Structures are given as C-alpha cells and as structure tokens.
Amino acid sequence: MNYNRHNDVWLKAAVIGSVWGASEIVFGSFLHNLRIPFSGNLLTAIGIIIMIAGHRMWPEKGLFWRAGLICAAMKTLSPSPVIFGPMLAIFMQSVSMQIGVLLGGRTGIGYLIGGGLAMAWNIVQRILTALLVYGASIIELYQSLVDYLNQNIGIPLSGYWTPVGTLFGLFFAGGVVAATAGILISRAALSGKTTLNFGMPTDKDSPMKSSFESHQSFSAIRLAGIFVLLFGGLYVIYAFPLYVSAMYVAGFLTLITLYDRRLIYRFVYKPGFWIGLLMISMLTGFFLGGTKGNAAFTMDGLRIGIEMNFRAIVVVAGFGAVSVQLRNPVLMQWFENKRMKNFLSAVRVSFQTIPFIIAMIPKGRAWRNPVTVLSGLIQQMDDYLVMMRKEHQKRNTVFIVTGKRGTGKTTVTRQIVDKLRDSGYAVSGIIQPEYIANGKRAGFYVEDIATGKRLLLCTRDSSISNRKPVLFNFSNDAFTFGEAALAVSRIRHADIVAIDEIGPLELEDQGWSNAIHSLRSQWSGPMIWVVREKLIDDVVKKWNIEDYTVFDINYTDVITIAVHIEEKMNS
Q1: Given this model, what pLDDT does residue 257 score?
Q2: Would you list the domain boundaries of the chain?
Q3: What backbone phi and psi angles, to 5 degrees, belong to 511?
Q4: What CATH number should be reported for the domain whose range is 397-570?
Q5: pLDDT for 432-449, tens place per residue?
Q6: pLDDT for residue 205
Q7: I want to staple 415 with a disulfide (CB 3.0 to 4.6 A). Which of 206, 344, 544, 558 is the partner?
Q8: pLDDT tens across 546-560, in order?
Q9: Contact yes or no for 384/18 (Cβ under 8 A)
C-alpha cells in the first residue's frame, strides 16, 4: 500500500468521520420521524460514542479533530441548504474531545472531560448563535428577564451567569454520561463480546463509483456580493428607520430566493422560526423600554424586537446562502493548493464510502436498540479502514503514457483502452486522433471514448481561430465537447478515465485544465494521462500526483501496460 503514517491517520479519521456522518443521517432521520425532543443532543451523544470507540481502537494524536473535520465535510451532502451551523458544531465537538484528552490523557478521565465539553459546546453555540442572529439586544433582553424573575417571581438567581452556568453544567453532565456509554459500548464491541455484523461489500456491488457534485453554480463575485448584502443589511437595520429596514429585508429575501429557492423554504415552511420571532417581539415589548425589573408593554420595546427580527431574517438567509458556497468544488482545489492533500484525499474517499456505510446501517426500528447498532458499527470500523486504504490507493493512481512527439502515444492509448474494455472495464474520457488532410497531419480531433463521437479540435488552417497555441488554432465547440465528455456526471459509472493529452495548454490553465481539476476533486478512480516525456515533472507537480506509474511506449508494449493497470486496479 502506498500511504505514509500521516496519511494513514487521515484515513482512520475518515472512517470515524464517515461512520459518525452516516449515523447522523440514519439516526437523525429516525429521530425526526418520531419528533423526539433534544434530538440534536442525542446525535451529539452518538458522535461522542463513535469518537471514543475510534480513538480506543486507534489512539493517534490529532485523530479527534481530523474526524470532526471530515464529518463536517460530509454535511455538504445534506439536502438542507443551511449547513454552516451544523458543520461548526460537529467540528467544535471533535475539538472539545481533543481538549479533553489533552487535559486528562488517553484515559477514561480524558474521555469523560472531552465528552462533557463536546456536549456543553451545544449550549455555547446556541448562545453565540443568538448573539449573531439577534445582536447585542438579546443580552439586554436576557438581563431584563433575570431581573424580573428575581424581583417578581421569587426565583433566587444570584447573578446573570447562574442560569447559563446551570445549563452548561447540565449539558456537561449529559456529555459525561455519553462518554461513559462510549467507553462501555466500545469495550464490549472491541473485545468481541458482541457479534453483530452488517456484512461487507463485494467488488461487484461496492458503490464506490458514486460521485457527489452539486448543480449549484459558484462564483467568488457572487459570494462577495452575499457578504456585502448581509453586512449592508445589518447596518441598514441599525442606522435607518423601520420602514427602510423593512424594504431592505424584502429586497434581500427576493435576491436570496433568486439565488437558491430552497433557502426561502427555511422561512415559509418553518413555523417554529416565526413563533420564535413573535415571542421575541412580545418579550421585548414587555421587558425592554420600561423600568428595570418590571414588565410593561412599550412601543420602544416592540420596535427593538422588530429590529432584532429583521436582523435574524437577514443573518439566517445570508449565512444560508454562504452555506451553499461551502459545496463549491473550487474549495477542494484551494485545499490542494494549500498542501492539504491528505485531508482532501480523506474527504474524497469518505464521499465515496459513506453511501455504502449508510446502506449497511440498519434503519427504522433497529435504532430502538441503539447500543446494538452502535456495537455493530464499531466492530466494522477496522474493515472500513481496509476498504478505505484500498480505495485511497486506487483514487490516487495515475497511469502516465509518455513518449516523444509523433511516436504514437494516442494509438497506444486507444489500444490500452480496447484491452481494458475486453477485460470488462468501463472506460471513459477523451483521445485526440490525428486529422489528416492531403496525406499530411493537419490537426487533431477530440473523440469521446464512451460514444466514439468526435469533433475537429484544432487545425493548421486559420479558418478555425478561437484559441491560439504555438502551431494550431482551436475550436471552442470542440473544447466544450471534450469537457462534456470529461464531466463528472458523464463518467460516474466508469472504472477508469483516459485523458489524451495533457500538455502545455493544461499547464497554463487552459485546454482540459478545468476538467482535470473537477475530476481530481469530485471523482474517485484511476486515470490514464497521456503526457509528453519532457512535461511529466511539471504535470505531476501541478496536480500534486503522489501515486503514479510512467509507461514509455518506446520500451513497454500495450499488453504489459494493460496488465499492469488491471493488476493495480484489482490490488
């Protein structure tokens, strides 16, 4: 296997993150259907149990926060348009577990501290979210409520921090209980006292070819515009009269609806949101604007409540739009450029593995006995790691076919494709056969390997003049045709993808460069790249290729190349 220890830590984190994410999807649906209260805290407890089990199995440094980062990335698969809050919660819960182990060591005490902090983060995030959504006025409202309870109800509260501290303590205690359950469940599962097994996939029915791409369009300019409108709205609500704020909020919601219609459903179909706004208006009307410690309805208090509600609508809708951008495939390329290849690779493998894990987890009534289900998941984690290692090796494999110019690289590549097809593999991608005119090479076609269709890509004839490389003029229509053949949605069922060729244009971010970036970030599987001999080092460096094999057609025959590729794919 071609992975180092640092990369293996990320793969172990990918197992924990994927199991955590899959259990949230399955168990979360079960809780949602039953409308069980405090379901978020129950999901946190599941996460704590899975993290502890994974760490007891693989006591690696930094395993918790890596698992949380990957599980948070799994939230981009959620159909919900608002994912930023859940992603932050998951990551901070994993950081809390990491802090617990740092404080208490890799012992039961460390796990108990970590579990308590992870669960307590839920109340911390709710407080921070309330501050972000409603602004500083929420603090004044809270203080007024505490003063009223002290003076009129007789509830003894020694200070403003007492209710908050009490809630924090209750949540921390809940996390300790979850951590205790995690220690006991993982101990039983890892000792072999439970025998539940969900089964493992065969090569035939493994769903590793799944791909996850979003159909939402992404734009840095659009994202910047969202932030301008968001913070501009907060300023308008703060500085201008209510009628101006109302017009701004109406226009803002209209733009948000045009951007992604699903975001407006968060308001239209969420009665709880509207009930919350109504309660804020009533509470501020009675407790703000009057005498401290007394409840008397005032218009000033109502005005403050309406301003808080306008702010809430702008913040929730604005950050919902920002959440959509978290699905941006360009982020994957950003991580690639920031030398976070191990994280990116682990996320890719997790994206491909999580459908299988979800399919294998018992559904519905099975979760009435969550201990049994969780024990089965924990028992499978070692098998998932083996599976991910295998997929990681495949995912990072690039077979480079090379040779000097004019030595027949395209012909050899076509023969390799034919051999692989004869062995039962599905091959997609593009090749660039010669275009012959008057008995001489006058240009190149681009051919869709899957369909056999082709278009004239370039010619020495200046009549096709859209792009200007050194020797040829290119057709934009042919580039569009080739990019479509390489689209993730087109090659999702392929076993291997071939790209002929990757050359000077691609190194300058032209040609098939965008398609290659998309494939590297969104598709799982090996690829065959045709590269000129002198450009191999530059191509490998540009796309951060770690696991690659070079075949020089001057020294290696087609059968040898095809056999080697098959052996690597089946290893």
Answers
A1: 82
A2: 5-211+335-393, 220-325, 397-570
A3: 60, -125
A4: 3.40.50.300
A5: 999 888 888 888 999 999
A6: 41
A7: 558
A8: 778 899 998 888 999
A9: yes
